[in-house]
Amino acid sequence: MDESKLTREAKRDEPALLPPVDVIEDASGITLYADLPGVPKDKLDVQVEADTLTISGEMAVAMPQGMAATHAEVSLPRYRRTFTLSKELDPEKLSAELKNGVLKLRIEKAVHAQPRKVQIKVG
Amino acid sequence: MDFSLFPRDVFADLDRLQRQMQQAFEFSPSIRGFARGGFPALNVGGTPQSVEIYAYVPGVDPSSIEVNLERGVLTLSGERKSALEGLGAKDTVHIEERFAGKFRRVVTLSDDLDPDSVEARCKDGLLHISVKRKAAAQPRRVTIQ
């Protein structure tokens, strides 16, 4: 087992927040939106391993020295969420865009899996 | 014992349990509350010189957020557009969890704040508001003569 895999597995065990998502499917693919406020581009990690999609991100929050928290609704500095992709989605055709703390992920369907209208013959 | 084929709504039960737990652990909230689960999520902290508010506002145009501070009461309001707008007739929504619509959160901060020295900065969907405390309210070392 190489080192990067080891750190990845260690990271998988760290407690993380579950970001809320919207998932929309259209004829040519799936679009996923995930709320990841506080995560800069370089701390975002989108991975596809076999049929598992993992989104993870670390927040980069600058806090003044000596600050004492009085109220915390966001209690962990990282997000993680895993999805199982179905076979017709092509992980090679994945694009990601991060803007204002929202990740927009687009996964196209493999060409053979795109819908075809079935002609119904009468007779 | 009720042997219903469809047991009671598990999620409603969990929700109620969660609220009971919060009641048990959070003592004496302010009358304006610090209600959890609203949008945007808030973290508040303080230093002897300032109060720091972190509002998690992903997907909201920073210039459209209205921040008001009046007599120690902070109000955040704005609107977040839904990602589901303008869907085609053949599009399917599989998961819909993200907040959409108008939001407004009001929090009571301490009353020793200086409304003239407020700084607000937004980056990666995280709005950081820093309010300085009034000079008179800051701790001072008393010299003993």
Structure write-up:
- The complex is a heterodimer of chains A (123) and B (145).
- Chain A contains 1 helix and 8 strands, in the order H-E-E-E-E-E-E-E-E.
- Chain A is elongated.
- Chain A starts with a helix and ends in a 14-residue tail after the last strand.
- Chain A has one helix at 3-13; strands spanning 21-26, 29-35, 44-49, 52-58, 68-72, 78-84, 89-99, 102-109.
- With 123 residues, chain A is mainly beta.
- Chain A has a 4-stranded antiparallel β-sheet with strand order 1-2-8-7, with no helix packed on it. In chain A, strands 3-4-6 form a 3-stranded antiparallel β-sheet, with no helix packed on it.
- Chain A has a single domain (3-61, 74-113), classed as Immunoglobulin-like (Sandwich).
- Chain B has one helix at 10-25, and strands spanning 41-46, 50-56, 66-70, 73-80, 92-96, 101-108, 113-123, 126-133.
- Chain B has 145 residues and is mainly beta.
- In chain B, strand 3 (66-70) and strand 4 (73-80) form a beta hairpin.
- Chain B has a domain at 32-83 and 99-134: Immunoglobulin-like (Sandwich), CATH 2.60.40.
- Chain B is elongated and about 80 Å long.
- The chains are: A mainly beta (123), B mainly beta (145).
- The interface between A and B is large, with 38 and 42 residues.
Which keywords apply here?
heterodimer; A: 123 residues; mainly beta; Immunoglobulin-like; 4-stranded antiparallel β-sheet; 3-stranded antiparallel β-sheet; 1 helix; 9% helix; elongated; B: 145 residues
Shape of chain A: elongated
Range of helix content of chain B: 10-25%
Indicate the percent of residues in helices of chain A: under 10%
Which structural class fits the helix and strand makeup of chain B?
Answer: mainly beta
Helix-strand category of chain A = mainly beta
